[in-house]
């Protein structure tokens, strides 16, 4: 299952947890603290920017999808109205 993260903080948090999980060999709280500090100080502008860009790209994808759904929804409503009008016309012809 693919996860769509709209919050760049969640991406950073996932990166931090992954780093600590991969490098934690002694399972001591002091090691977790040191690994956390190491990861945070090594976080560069490029990685932080990639988190922001990823969130923006997902947001834009959702916006495009929403716009598409709104267009289709209008077409479906119009089609339903047309069908109802056709049915009403047919019923009127039958009753005459």
Structural write-up:
- The protein has three helices and no strands.
- It is an all-alpha fold.
- The chain has one domain (8-95).
- The termini are far apart.
- The mean pLDDT is 85.
Spans where pLDDT lies below 50 across 5 or more residues: none
Number of alpha- plus pi-helical segments: 3
**In the residues, how many domains can be counted?**
1
Count of beta strands: 0
Task: Give the overall pLDDT as a whole number.
Answer: 85
Percentage of residues in strands: under 5%
Tell me the structural class: mainly alpha
Features:
rod-shaped, 96 residues, mainly alpha, single chain
Topology:
Elements: H1 8-23, H2 29-42, H3 45-95
Helix pairs in contact: 1-2, 1-3
In short:
This protein is mainly α.
């Amino acid at each position: 299952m693919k996860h769509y993260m709209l919050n760049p903080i969640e991406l950073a948090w996932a990166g931090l947890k992954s780093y600590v999980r991969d490098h934690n060999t002694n399972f001591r709280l002091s090691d977790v603290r040191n690994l956390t500090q190491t990861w945070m100080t090594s976080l560069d502008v490029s990685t932080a920017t990639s988190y922001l860009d990823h969130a923006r790209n997902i947001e834009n994808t959702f916006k495009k999808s929403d716009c598409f759904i709104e267009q289709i929804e209008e077409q479906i409503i119009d089609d339903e109205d047309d069908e109802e009008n056709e049915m009403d016309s047919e019923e009127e012809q039958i009753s005459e």
